[in-house]
Amino acid sequence: MKYLPLYIITFLISCSNNNTADQSQPGNSTATENNQEIQSAPASPGNGIVGEWEQQYTCFDKNGNYKLEPDEKKPSNTNLGFNWFRFNADGSCLRDKDIQFKGTYTIQEENANKILMIQGGDNLRYSIAELTNKELIIGSSGAFIVFRRIK
Questions:
Q1: Are 147 and 55 in contact (CB under 8 A)?
Q2: Which end of the chain is more exposed for a tag (fewer CB within 10 A), N or C?
Q3: Cβ-based neighbour number of residue 16 at 10 Å
Q4: pTM above 0.90, yes or no
């Protein structure tokens, strides 16, 4: 029961992002309603996301510009979405350390922005605000979720 609010929030975030075209096949390229090109990249060790990631905290886009400024990158004492991800080089992934939901993922380029698409039971779409060897920051609906690499 302690995870119920987490799943409800995750469900609401994912529902707000499911109105995009189906991009479930790696390497597909489709045009959006605005004729903007979306490129899907197959998962590969070179994309920097392969490994295990643990959620550290959530922060919020206070000025509504869909970018995370240094003064906004502060813990809010709120955790949203999944607490853990494992992204594998073959394009498979697991999410939620306790339940370990199985799925697949792709990283897409959309107007010079990287988008993380996760399929498996439901479709999740996150913008990648930052990806380094130690930190992954994904955003959705005005919230940014900060992860630390654990493996």
A1: yes
A2: N
A3: 11
A4: no
